[in-house]
Design brief:
Elements (H helix, E strand, L loop, with lengths): L17 E3 L2 E3 L6 E3 L5 E4 L4 E4 L7 E3 L12 E4 L7 H17 L3 E4 L17 H14 L4 E2 L18 H8 L2 H6 L15 E5 L3 E5 L15
Helix pairs in contact: 1-2
Length: 222
């Protein structure tokens, strides 16, 4: 049960095991399932919602135990944040490849939001058509691991905005996942999106943040 936050940590799960789940909203005590119906999609070209006839799968598979020597198939995406029909087609192709090849995770190489998408990335609403809508039937069961691209920082600072990075941290739960993880999990350093994670015994990924955002972090040297 989650009272106010938009995330929760689930513990005690068995490694390399598939689970199903359901999400319940509790507005004013009226407990009801969330996201159980058919999914609607906003089409910016017609400015209307369209029924996709699709549903959330609401399942996921845990990583293997740290001692296991296993193989891994993963996907990599980047420079996707346009909110265009091409991005939607890419998301559908990615979903087909994930199901066909047993992809366990997705690495994001940055530039989640582009100025050409109709915004700059510093507003939560812009994430609907550029991230949450295209990939929603993937992120409901496949972990996406982010990094920061040059279009994810600083574009709005010149216009007096809050900065794209703050919104990226919010929508991708960066602080909860990487800056302040539960005890025993790998942690990031505090200045920027640096983190690492393992898949089994032999595979490790490391995220290095090379962005320089004076508003958030000041100058960083490498």
């Amino acid at each position: 049960r989650v009272e106010a936050d938009t995330f929760t940590w689930v513990t005690g799960l068995t490694p390399d095991t598939e689970y199903t789940y359901r999400v319940f909203a509790d507005p004013k005590g009226a407990r009801r399932p969330w996201g159980d119906g058919e999914l609607w999609e906003y089409r910016p070209e017609i400015k209307e919602l369209v029924n996709t006839k699709r549903r959330y799968g609401c399942r996921f598979k845990t990583f293997p135990p740290p001692s296991a020597s296993v193989s891994l198939t993963f996907a990599v995406i980047g420079d996707t944040g346009t909110g265009s029909a091409d991005q939607a087609a890419l998301a559908r192709a990615l979903e087909g490849a994930i199901e066909k090849h047993g992809v366990r995770l997705v690495l994001m190489t940055g530039d989640t939001i582009y100025r050409s998408s109709g915004g700059t990335g510093d507003d939560d609403d812009e994430w609907l058509t550029t991230y949450f809508q295209p990939y929603r039937t993937l992120i409901d069961h496949i972990p996406f691991f982010p990094c920061v691209g040059n279009h994810d920082t600083g574009e709005t600072l010149l216009e007096g905005g809050q900065g794209d990075t703050l919104t990226l941290y919010d929508n991708l739960l960066v602080s909860e996942r990487f800056l302040h993880p539960p005890s025993g999990r790998d942690a990031s350093v505090t200045k920027g999106l640096f983190y690492r994670f393992t898949f089994g015994r032999d595979i490790e990924f490391i995220c290095l943040d090379t962005s320089k955002d004076q508003f958030l972090f000041g100058k960083r040297m490498f």
